[in-house]
């Protein structure tokens, strides 16, 4: 008995799937590679859009010939995994096209200010997950070429996608378990600030100044949700700053008074978070007295 002829994928299905994936593989997201339209359930007669995934030639071959690849380099591309990656990538592409996308393009720069040797570009969603990444190194091109490639990549993703650049070169660090280089992702609450188009209207900071000890506490809220908290106090010859993710001890300089140095730290936090509405209180911490200006008491300089 003759086998049924394999039907072609309808043109409108092809166009829709390619458009929703930006025409790239849902696994590696590499641009400029040859692609296949893959039947996720391996049934060539099931041409529903949900069953068609865009996969590059390499990933398609890995799916059909897994034994031909080194296990350490092979991503298990079973039916469930391909479907998961297809959905994730198509949702990401759709998010990138929105007026206020909840994804951020991020760059990690490695080396020193005088010698940048590599850059990691990645797309991160608001939950902190990295959707994909690109690595640029001096052996693959110049810094100018990397910059052009990164800008081109962001434009390709969507004109409203924001690009965040880590403000100083990083040291390359490795995971002690898998030995892969670590990525400096954006904090989830920082992602909220960067992607909220109503941040200035709905963000507010509160500062409590302790009147009897050289200490203070600062919080930042967005839409009535706490997104950042920290406290600062004088600790012998240092200003000790503690927040949600790190702490820092800054030596007190003799050239200026301690109040000025503490104020500079708080101003830097407010500037970084771009908060315009600030409530400042003192005296009773449960029912603080509101004051107009950030003015630390003289006890900081004793």
From TrEMBL:
Keywords: Endonuclease, Hydrolase, Nuclease. One of its GO terms (molecular function) is endonuclease activity. The keyword Hydrolase applies. This is HNH endonuclease. It comes from Bernardetia litoralis (strain ATCC 23117 / DSM 6794 / NBRC 15988 / NCIMB 1366 / Fx l1 / Sio-4).
């Amino acid at each position: 008995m003759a086998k049924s002829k394999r039907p072609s994928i309808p043109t409108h299905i092809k166009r829709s799937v390619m458009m929703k994936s930006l025409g790239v593989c849902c696994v590696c997201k590499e641009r400029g590679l040859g692609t296949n339209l893959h039947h996720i359930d391996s049934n060539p007669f099931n041409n529903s859009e949900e069953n068609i995934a865009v996969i590059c030639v390499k990933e398609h071959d890995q799916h059909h010939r897994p034994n031909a690849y080194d296990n350490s380099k092979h991503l298990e591309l079973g039916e469930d995994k391909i479907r998961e990656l297809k959905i994730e990538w198509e949702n990401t592409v759709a998010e990138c096209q929105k007026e206020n996308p909840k994804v951020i393009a991020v760059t990690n720069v490695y080396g020193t200010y005088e010698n940048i040797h590599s850059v990691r570009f990645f797309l991160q969603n608001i939950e902190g997950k990295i959707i994909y990444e690109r690595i640029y190194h001096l052996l693959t091109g110049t810094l100018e070429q990397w910059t052009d490639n990164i800008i081109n990549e962001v434009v390709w993703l969507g004109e409203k996608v924001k690009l965040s650049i880590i403000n100083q070169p990083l040291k390359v660090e490795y995971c002690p378990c898998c030995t892969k280089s670590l990525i400096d992702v954006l904090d989830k609450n920082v992602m909220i600030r960067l992607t909220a188009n109503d941040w200035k209207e709905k963000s507010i900071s509160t500062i409590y100044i302790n009147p009897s000890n050289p200490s203070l506490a600062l919080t930042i809220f967005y839409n009535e949700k706490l997104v950042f908290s920290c406290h600062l106090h004088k600790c012998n010859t240092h200003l000790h700053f503690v927040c949600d993710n790190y702490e820092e001890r800054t030596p007190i300089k003799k050239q200026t008074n301690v109040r000025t140095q503490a104020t500079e730290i708080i101003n830097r936090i407010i500037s970084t978070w771009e908060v315009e509405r600030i409530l400042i209180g003192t005296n009773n911490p449960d029912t603080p007295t509101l004051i107009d200006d950030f003015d630390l008491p003289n006890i900081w300089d004793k």
